[in-house]
Amino acid sequence: MSSSAQFLNSSEAAKRLGVSTKALRLYEQRGLVTPVRSAAGWRAYGPNEMARAAEIVALRALGLSLAQVARVLWGDAEDLEPALATHQATLEERARHLAATVEKVRGLRADLAQGQMPTAGELTRLLGPPSDLSIAFDLPWPWGGERFELRDVRALNYIIGPLGSGKTRLAQRLAETLPDAAFLGLDRLADGGAALRARLDTDPALKARVDESLAWLVEDGAVVSKPLVALLVGLESQGPAVLVVDMVEQGLDQAAQEALIAHLRRRGPGGRPLFLLTRSSAILDLAAVGPDESIIFCPANHSPPSRVAPYPGAPGYEAVATCLASPEVRARTEGVIAWRPQVA
After folding, report:
1. What pLDDT is recorded for position 130?
2. 3-state secondary structure of 243
3. From the centroid of its chain, how far is CA 117?
4. 299 three-class SS
5. Do you find a cis peptide bond into 142, omega within 30 degrees of 0?
6. How far is CA 187 from the centre of its chain?
7. pLDDT digit string (tens) for 251-275?
8. Pairing verdict, β 181-184 and 242-245
9. CA distances (Å), 231 to each of 27, 143, 218, in order?
10. What CA–CA distance (Å, rounded) separates 215 from 198?
11. Is residue 202 domain-shared with residue 66, that is, in the same domain?
């Protein structure tokens, strides 16, 4: 290979493309991309291979299966038109929201020119799409009754905080207070998630939805496992309008986590709101947080939880980044809890 600096190994290529190395290997197995080989036999991705892989990733983001991706890459556009139509509808909705936000900013600037300061709520609402769903309640222990308000609930909401910060209590209170909400706790993993997985035998419609989601995840590099299936049963069950999930990464390896969050993002702003407790950098990639997502941070000092904007320099950003760990570290520290003083 000439100009070796232009070639990336599998790990580097996957990171740049935003997929797992298992996903890249699967693309290769399907004949969609063919990495070159170094003198030592290692896979390497040059400019041509990266361009091809980027095409695959883009088509996957449009909602195409790998079989559909293959047909498009081989010149059959039949599957591409409906995917582009759906994407166009999503972009048009975002354009309408952006135009409305521009008008809000114009109004706030006009008010500011006349000496009227915008409220914190007005500024917060500029950061994300509008939502009819909002909530306000008195916080439980360990906060001591402070008021918590969450306006414009997004499609994906991450709850994060250090050990002992109270994030699980916040999540449980959200599930109790939000209208038509459910809490999917870690009991989903009891006996390998047998109770949840048993529902597949009695609910054919649920099984079809889980099988479809599982097929997408496998195409993105995930390996089928009992924790993954149990989680999907909870996510795909119909009924609750809002779902709060405790430690969504529990029991999942990195490839499964990366495939899962990519799958959840594909739902777009129209999906039912999800609140995901996490401390995994694969689930909450701060560089990938979109306008339909929000981060709720629970500080170690038990100050009231607050939204944190996903960019360096924003209040709370560094604290959130400090809480995140790689999936390998999360797996090693599974079950660790914060020390609590004995009550006399």
Report:
1. 54
2. strand
3. 34
4. coil
5. yes
6. 21
7. 999 889 988 998 898 876 667 899 9
8. parallel
9. 25, 30, 15
10. 19
11. no
Nearest-angstrom CA–CA distance, 28 and 24: 6
Asked if residue 269 lies in contact with residue 113, where contact means CB atoms within 8 angstroms, the answer is no
Residue-wise pLDDT for 86-138, tens only, equals 778 777 877 887 788 888 888 888 888 988 888 766 776 665 555 567 888 99
pLDDT in tens, 148-176: 988 788 889 999 999 999 999 999 999 99
Considering only CA atoms, which of 312, 311, 263, 320 is closest in space to residue 291?
311
DSSP letters for 111-178: HHHTT-PPPHHHHHGGGS---S--EEEE--TTS-S-EEEE-S--SEEEEE--TTS-HHHHHHHHHHHS
Regarding pTM above 0.90, the answer is no
In a domain, 35, yes or no: yes
Question: Do 298 and 180 fall into the same domain?
Answer: yes
Q: In terms of residue numbers, what domain contains 45?
A: 4-73
Q: Report whether 241 contacts 181 (CB < 8 A).
A: yes
- Residue at which a domain ends, from 25, 50, 73: 73
